[in-house]
Amino acid sequence: MMRKSLTILCILLIGAWLSGCATMEPPKEKPYKVMPGGMVVWEDEMEFKIPPPEWKLLRVEMGENDINFGFMRSDPGGFPSVTTFAYDEEPFGCSAASFEGREREFFKRFLFNAILQFQILERKKVQVVGGEGLQVDVEGKDPIKGEKVRARVVFGKRGERIIGFYITQWRPMAGTYDLSAFDVFDKFVSSFKYLKKSFYETL
Amino acid sequence: MEGHQRNLYLYDRFNARVVGVSRDDVITLKYFAKDLGLTFPLLSNPTGFLGVTFDTLVEGKPVFRRRTVIIDKTGIIRYSRDGSPDFKDILLFLKKLNQEGGKK
User: Fold this and answer.
1) In whole angstroms, what is the distance from residue A142 CA to residue B64 CA?
2) Which site in A55, A64, A179, B95 is 20 to 30 Å from B61, CA atoms measured?
3) What is the DSSP-derived secondary structure letter of residue B62?
4) Per-residue pLDDT reduced to its tens digit, B42-76
5) Are A90 and A64 in contact (CB under 8 A)?
6) CA–CA–CA angle A98, A64, A61 (5° rounding)
7) Are A42 and A30 in contact (CB under 8 A)?
8) How much is the pTM?
9) Residue contact A64–B84, C-beta within 8 A
10) Which residues make beta-bridge pairs with A59?
11) Nearest Cα residue to A70 out of A54, A55, A86
């Protein structure tokens, strides 16, 4: 009788163990592949130069199916010393006719939670993703919180739509910026290539 | 709304038109459209009767639940999804609908 009960218990335990396995989530596939030479292929759709290891991958999904990801690095110094850069398939705004129009729309909402007073430091035409683009350097200050941010936004085109890259570097008001992070960002942007047409171009 | 504005050229390609419906008043919608640079019509429906038609009324609140509805040229609702619009899904559906229309 005892042996029979133990056998049933074992079967139940194995059953429970197997059912536990059945409900386990499959491991998530990484959205990127690291290629020889330090290049990364992202979802078989684009490639770019991987930043140094201190930059951690930051995946941002806005819920509207746009490809949107970036990298983040904690910087020495007091809060809020951090640098983040990202690629954004659909930057704020909707103008596609001109970069200048999109820039105006974009800066209405860029970092809008922070309520910053932005000052444009430089605006220039650049080459990006194989075509003409616009680069805008800004600095924003929040005198109430005693924080500041330096940012660079690069607009380019993918098919008929405008895409964006941006880097933000936050510092306490008395802190100094580390512009070497902007060089990493520039390398990321200049290495960026599309490997196939976007969803919108295939419609 | 910005997503729809970005996609207007594609809606046009698929013979589709977009309108937004809100319970806000006309003046609020005018400012909203101007601020976001929207060029498609926004319909003001403060009494909320369109919420009955599309089943988007929220009990006790003067707003509509977010829903995307696609109506074909014969007036039949062919697509209805709650929540934030899935633009890729919408575009694929419109493309299919346009192809169907072209075959008739």
Assistant:
1) 36
2) A64
3) S
4) 999 999 999 999 999 998 899 999 999 999 999 99
5) yes
6) 100
7) no
8) 0.82
9) yes
10) A69
11) A86
